[in-house]
UniProtKB/TrEMBL annotation:
It comes from Juglans regia (English walnut). SUPFAM superfamilies: Carbohydrate phosphatase (SSF56655). Its cofactor is Mg(2+). Keywords: Hydrolase, Magnesium, Metal-binding. The keyword DNA-binding does not apply. Pfam families: Inositol_P. Mg(2+) binds at E147, D214, D217, D388. This is 3'(2'),5'-bisphosphate nucleotidase. GO terms for molecular function: 3'(2'),5'-bisphosphate nucleotidase activity; metal ion binding.
Length: 451
């Protein structure tokens, strides 16, 4: 654990019997995020439609005598609880589909109109999370900006693909009780699944509340058995208020990490698939303004999700010397300039090889101190989408890091589905001192770039 993680060992929220948010001083637990709506009873928990409360009473019994009163805001804990559980479910879905892709065939990989890849997992995760959010908070109260649509699934020759998506969604939702949800009364039909995907049609904007979802970020990594992420964030009045990143191939233990081989190959060579020591995959999350970010392992098969699910705090590295820093950049050259980042690295004195990682796993790597810098400078004409950054930004910020554009301005999530008015690129770093050095290097090098 990085040396500056001490500040994360205090103030873990849980809910007491009278509905007050309490902090438990611990280094390896995060409390329940469910709220009492009865002031005098610990057994009556804030209820949302079809949200299974079977685990909540045991949590409160375990924690009822713990903690110190806190003034930390109580809002968004319910949303975070649902979001973490939904992403945990989505990770389980993706692991099954990826295993099928790796061990059997690639016939589940398709191309969208822009030639980018899409799989059964992309549509299935979007449908499942859309359904879970709608059931938890009421469909009319849920607005979602997401990457996928139903154009390809609705084509006449896509009946087999659509049937596979429907089956995958229902397999996922059948596991809902393990994660604290009440599943559907009967299996979803084709129209139900298409409706759930289509419900993710919000265009975002500066006012109101909406979710943003990238069901499988880093699809190339996904189909190659490498890193990918499920990214879910909640935005209110243009500000990201919570973020959840599911990283199914990112191990809890840093010493198991390798950036040069596919994660499933490492796991197969070094430990049996059933070994608890592997802890393949994690979910990391944060609430804006909490000053804390967390990660927890993915739920093992046949086990029930119970907070805190072995959650532990994460925080950024304390390294501020570029010579000692590790920087991340996208694997794909199509929408980023490796040559410019290489020039910046040389200018700043970065000695380590770049960490090229698919997807928003890069944000998770910085948030937990595995790397110190993420730089992305898109080629002319490419526009960054909000779902590619929202969840990761709030997680890094609450873990103690900094994320801005290359001009030092906060990323603006209030302009719709794109990060409009972005100054050159996106920079994330482990701290303000390091961040300032990067921005000054960009300013000094930009005029000589071809971007």
């Amino acid at each position: 654990m990085p040396i500056n993680c001490w500040r994360l060992t205090a103030g873990v929220p849980y809910v007491s019997g009278n509905g007050r948010v309490i902090h438990r001083f611990t280094s390896n637990h995060v409390g329940s995020v469910l709220f009492s709506h009865h002031q005098n009873s610990a057994k009556h928990i804030f209820s949302v439609p079809k949200f299974n409360q079977s685990y909540s009473s045991s949590i409160i019994e375990e924690q009822k005598n713990l903690g110190v009163a806190s003034a930390e805001p109580e809002i968004f804990y319910k949303e975070l609880d649902v979001a973490v559980r939904a992403v945990q479910m989505a990770c389980s879905l993706c692991q099954r589909v990826q295993d099928s892709l790796i061990s059997k065939s690639k016939d589940q990989v398709h191309s969208k109109d822009d030639s980018s890849p899409v799989t059964i997992a992309d549509w299935s995760v979007q449908a499942a999370i859309s359904w879970l959010l709608s059931e938890s908070f009421g469909r009319k109260n849920v607005s979602i900006v997401a990457e996928e649509d139903v154009k390809k699934l609705s084509k006449a020759d896509a009946s087999g693909l659509l049937a596979a998506v429907v089956n995958t969604v229902n397999e996922c939702l059948a596991e809902a009780p393990r994660f604290g949800f009440q599943g559907p009364d009967m299996a979803l039909g084709t129209s139900d699944v298409l409706e759930a995907i289509s419900h993710c049609n919000s265009s975002g904007g500066p006012t109101g509340r909406f979710w943003t979802l990238d069901p499988v970020d880093g699809t190339l990594g996904f189909v190659r058995g490498d890193q990918y992420a499920i990214a879910l964030a909640l935005i209110e009045d243009g500000e990201v208020v919570l973020g959840v990143l599911g990283c199914p191939n990112y191990p809890m233990r840093k010493e198991w990490l390798s950036y040069h081989h596919r994660c499933h190959r490492i796991k197969t060579r070094l430990t049996p698939p059933t070994s608890d020591s592997w802890h393949q995959g994690l979910v990391t999350y944060a609430l804006k303004g909490s000053g804390r970010a967390w990660m927890q392992p993915l739920l093992h098969a046949n086990k029930k999700f119970v907070w805190p699910n072995s959650a532990r705090p994460v925080c950024v590295s304390s390294i501020d010397d570029p010579a000692l820093a590790t920087f991340c950049e996208p694997v794909e050259k199509a929408n980023s300039s490796h040559s410019f980042t290489a020039g910046l690295a040389h200018t700043m004195g970065l000695r380590k090889q770049p960490l090229r990682v698919y997807s928003m796993v890069k944000y998770a790597a910085i948030a937990r101190g595995d790397a110190e810098i993420f730089m992305k400078f898109a080629r002319a004409g490419y526009k960054e989408k909000i779902w590619d950054h929202a969840a990761g930004v709030v997680i890094i910020q609450e873990a103690g890091g900094v994320v801005t554009d290359a001009g030092g301005h906060p990323l603006d999530f209030s302009k719709g589905i794109y990060l409009e008015c972005l100054d050159r690129g996106v920079i994330a770093s482990a701290g303000a001192k390091l961040h300032d050095k990067i921005i000054r290097a960009v300013d000094a090098s930009w005029d000589s770039s071809s971007l």
